[in-house]
Design goal:
By secondary structure, the chain is an alpha/beta fold. The protein folds into 2 domains: 2-21 and 65-146, no CATH class; 149-274, 60s Ribosomal Protein L30, Chain: A, CATH 3.30.1330. The protein is built from 8 helices and 10 strands. The protein has a 4-stranded mixed sheet. The chain has a 4-stranded mixed sheet with strand order 6-9-7-8. Strands 1-3 form a two-stranded parallel sheet. The structure holds iron/sulfur cluster. Residues 66, 68, 147-150, 183-184, 271-273 line the site of iron/sulfur cluster.
């Protein structure tokens, strides 16, 4: 059995915090460039050019893409042939977030108690951790800092099977209309179809991690992704809500088996700062 010390997890997560906050993934950058060239609205094109300049500056100076450096959402795929020594995984991830957000001078955006006191935890912990056990002796960690503006526009609807594809399109359309400029378009949109209520939401967020250049392996869902993108871009919201054809760069769908009576549909919206960074240990 392979052993990984908790300090390795701490260092890995700490490194991902600065990287994710400052360096937009290459597929998103290329998507923004294509969007700038394709956008029909002059104002939309100008906004996209500014977003590209912002991303270039952030990447070259290692400054955050946005002042909202987000809640640290951490996806861990833990190989079952790996044993963790030292602190627990939760402690190690949180220590990594604490160090990473501190060392890179990222805004701390977490309150300990959400309703009454709302006191900032001071170090951006605790992280939200999604753990899966997978075959093998590797550990994959992906950090997805999620800004409040776009996270607030998440949507879950529990449809019934008879709602079908049209129902899924209606939910995504409604979510995007409700989001509007408030979630800082152009978006990358994750959609979770099936599962139960909480699995659909997790899959929607997991879908945000997939490259926008990747075509869904199931041709039915690949077609659905294209049709959903067309629905979203027909809203005319456009870059930063100033009007235009490009409201989203991509819609990624993840599906899961569901109850015979249920068709859960979850939508997670990522803003133009569609940040995530990963490492395999
Ligand atoms: S939605 Fe995204 S770009 Fe807009 S303020 Fe939040 S993190 Fe920044």
């Amino acid at each position: 059995m392979r052993e990984i010390k908790s300090v390795e997890i701490v260092q890995a997560v700490a490194g991902l915090c600065g990287k994710a906050a400052c360096a937009l993934p290459a597929d998103i950058l290329a998507g923004l460039q294509r969007a700038r060239d394709a956008e029909e609205s002059a104002q939309g094109r100008a906004i996209l050019q500014e977003l590209l300049e912002n991303a270039a500056l952030a990447g070259s100076k290692m400054l955050p893409l946005c002042q909202d450096t987000g809640l640290a959402v951490v996806f861990v795929d833990w190989g079952q042939a790996v044993r963790l020594s030292g602190a627990s995984l939760e402690e190690a991830v949180n220590e990594g977030v604490r160090r990473g957000y501190g060392e890179a001078f990222l805004r701390k955006s977490v309150v300990n108690e959400p309703l009454f006191e709302r006191k900032n935890s001071g170090d951006n912990t605790p992280a939200i951790i999604h753990l899966r056990q997978v075959p093998g002796d590797r550990v994959k960690i992906v950090l997805c800092p999620k800004g409040g503006g776009c996270e607030n526009k998440s949507m879950l609807r529990m449809l019934v099977p008879a709602d079908g594809v049209q129902g899924v399109k209606r939910v995504v359309h409604d979510a995007v209309l409700a989001a509007g400029a408030g979630a800082c378009p152009p978006f990358v949109i994750g959609v979770g179809v099936g599962g139960d209520s909480e699995l659909a939401m997790i899959n929607a967020k997991r879908a945000l991690l997939r490259s926008i250049d990747e075509i869904h392996p199931d041709p039915r869902y690949a077609r659905l992704e294209e049709e959903l993108l067309a629905v979203v871009n027909a809203t005319g919201i456009g870059p930063q809500g100033f009007g235009g054809r490009i409201t989203a760069l991509k819609v990624n769908v993840e599906f899961a088996p569901a109850h015979i009576a249920s068709l859960p549909v979850a939508v997670s919206i990522n803003c133009h700062a569609a940040r995530h960074a990963g490492i395999v240990i």
